[in-house]
Amino acid sequence: MARIVAFFNQKGGTAKTTSTLNVAAALAERGRRVLAMDLDPQASLTMATGVDVAGLDASVYDLLLDDGLGLAAVATPTAIPGVTLVPSHPDLAAAELELLNVLERERQLDYRLRSADLSPYDYVLIDSPPALNVLSVNILVAAGELVIPIEPHPLSLMVLRRLFETIGRIRRLNPRLRVLGFLPTKVHHSSRLAADMLATLAEEFPDLARLPAVPLSVKSAESAAERTSILQYMPRSAVAAAYREVGAWLEAHGSSANGHADPVAAGQERVSLHV
Ligand SMILES: Nc1ncnc2c1ncn2[C@@H]1O[C@H](COP(=O)(O)OP(=O)(O)OP(=O)(O)O)[C@@H](O)[C@H]1O
Ligand SMILES: [Mg+2]
């Protein structure tokens, strides 16, 4: 069964899109079949995978709001071998309002994924918008697992409190949601800020795993501009190596892995202690 993993953080610019793209490429390199879904009206992932947004017949917007449209009608090949994309479109910004009139608006993405044939895929990776809105809630309800990309920034830890509150509430709608852990991104090795943030994370969220860190590098931005993954653009770079490690980490920490404390509940408890 395909694992549905969302890269989620309501804070902007934490490398959600970069991580979705490059983890997709890393898993594809390992022979996995990946469906990447762009749930952000900014359509950054769609553009970064080389898909022409203007030329699209249908996007994730149509998938969410048109009952008659299946996943297969929206999925499109990308410039990255082994990676198929459900593209976004700026129209998706209107979905927020339009979903208000839809019954069970939080469950639309979940319904679409449940009724779709996901057997052609091993992974469904979802890129999220920097928001906590109806679209984001749809992602949290549909996902099986979450990765939280986080960059060394003074605001990064503050937003986590709200994120875990939201995840706590979502559990009613999606009890099987599992937070896999934090993915430190844009990490400058000699930066005091990064070291401090990682230490605080370990202290405040001791039950949450830390995925392999991704170093800060201008190459990341260059590869997005080239409309491909950094694994293809700069296969021997440190960032490509890091995302390969993240791919391997995901494979090693399967959705059926057990024996862990409940990370969401643990995060919740910690958060409330730190309010
Ligand atoms: N490892 C890295 N080193 C340097 N810059 C990076 C790295 N990863 C991502 N970036 C850059 O950081 C910026 C934000 O990255 P990205 O768009 O992936 O974040 P995001 O979380 O998806 O943003 P948004 O919240 O707007 O969707 C981009 O300009 C990207 O090129
Ligand atoms: Mg993004």
Written description of the protein model:
The protein is of the alpha/beta class and 275 residues long. It has one domain (3-273): Rossmann fold (3-Layer(aba) Sandwich). The chain has 13 helices and eight strands. The protein has helices spanning 16-29, 44-48, 60-65, 71-74, 92-99, 108-115, 134-142, 154-170, 192-204, 219-225, 230-233, 238-252, 263-273; strands at residues 3-7, 34-38, 76-77, 83-86, 123-127, 145-150, 178-184, 209-210. Strands 3-4-2-5-1-6-7-8 form an eight-stranded mixed beta sheet, with helices on both faces. Helix 8 links the parallel strand 6 and strand 7. The structure holds adenosine-5'-triphosphate and magnesium ion (MG). Magnesium ion binds next to helix 1.
CATH hierarchy: architecture: 3-Layer(aba) Sandwich
User: Considering the protein shown, what is the CATH homologous superfamily?
Assistant: P-loop containing nucleotide triphosphate hydrolases
Count of helical segments? 13
Strand order of the largest sheet: 3-4-2-5-1-6-7-8
The figure for the number of domains is: 1
- Unreliable residue runs: 257-275
Span between termini: 39 Å
Rounded to the nearest angstrom, the radius of gyration is 18 Å
Total number of strands: 8
According to CATH, the fold-level topology is Rossmann fold
Based on Cα principal axes, name the global outline. Answer: globular
Largest sheet: 8 strands, mixed
- CATH class division: Alpha Beta
- Ligand types: adenosine-5'-triphosphate, magnesium ion
